[in-house]
Design goal:
The protein contains 10 helices and no strands. With about 280 residues, it is an all-alpha fold. The chain has one domain: Orthogonal Bundle (Ribonucleotide Reductase, subunit A).
Length: about 280
């Protein structure tokens, strides 16, 4: 915790120092083409170069919107856990974590609202449920970890992609810089909580958790395939095509490749017993 706190202090940044272009030319790449949700499909291949670049803009807006919607409940959960008796030793770093997630939302929302004048809406539904001892904390942190493991792969690749407009590269770079610490923290606390509680949980509870996490991973990926993005590009039958895009072999292969490290971690530590279907 001390090392993470020290690193956060060293990398402290003011989000309002970021230099924003007045306008953003949509005839440039804002999202790495190989990471675009429908890259490799017949619909993508038929697009003109200009439309592919315009699609990359809307994909960037969707990616940043997903991050906003992912980080709002994360921030709420971190704030809820500040100074709790169980987490008192973690509180110094949770302050940094919370501060950095707030900055990330500023980066993402600023891009979306400056250049697209909107944020794509959140489509998740929250269903209240009862938890056994340790289950709620474990699910909170493991869901955060899964989401951030996937996002960070995108951040790393796009921060290094010289085809992208500088502001898109910089947002991805800044996000990865902080997320690299969040992932270290997340892996440690997820393993710690799982080891502490797994023998206390019944077989039924463990099975329920594993099914839920596999479904959560799949649901997270489905959010990358947003029909509103395709509609904004004037792709006809956008809603009908979304499932076909998601089920295409090329898109499934990309999901598996990007998720590999995350799934390997979950399997190695016994959190999952088999690879989830993506």
């Amino acid at each position: 915790m001390e090392k993470l706190c020290e690193a956060s202090r060293r990398d402290y940044a003011n989000p309002y120092d970021l230099k924003w272009p007045e306008t953003l030319d949509q005839n440039q790449w804002c999202f790495s083409p190989e990471l675009i949700s429908i890259y490799g499909t017949d619909v993508y291949d038929k697009l003109s170069e200009a439309d592919k670049k315009r699609l990359s803009f809307y994909e960037a807006v969707n990616f940043f919107s997903l991050n906003i919607h992912g980080e709002k409940p994360l921030s709420e959960g971190l704030a809820h856990r500040l100074y709790s008796k169980r987490n008192i030793s973690l509180s110094p770093y949770l302050h940094h974590f919370l501060d950095e997630e707030n900055k990330h939302m500023i980066y993402f929302a600023s891009f979306c609202l400056r250049y697209a004048f909107k944020i794509y809406p959140d489509k998740k539904m929250s269903i209240p449920q009862e938890y056994v001892a340790g289950e709620e904390d474990f699910l909170f942190f493991v869901k955060v970890l899964i989401f951030e493991e996937i996002v960070d792969i995108f951040n790393i690749r796009m921060s290094r992609d010289e085809r992208l407009v500088p502001i898109a590269r910089e947002i991805n770079r800044l996000h990865h810089r902080d997320e690299s610490r969040h992932l270290v923290f997340g892996r440690e606390i997820v393993v710690s909580l799982f080891k502490e509680y797994k023998d206390q949980w019944s077989k039924e509870t463990l099975q329920k958790i594993r099914i839920y996490l596999a479904q959560y991973l799949l649901a997270t990926w489905k959010e990358y395939f947003n029909p509103e993005v395709y509609k904004d590009l004037n792709i006809s039958d956008a809603y009908d095509l979304t499932d076909r895009f998601f089920d295409s072999p090329v898109c499934r292969t990309r999901r598996i490749e990007i998720s590999a490290n995350c799934i390997s971690f979950l399997l190695k530590n016994g959190i999952l017993e088999k690879e989830p279907s993506l």
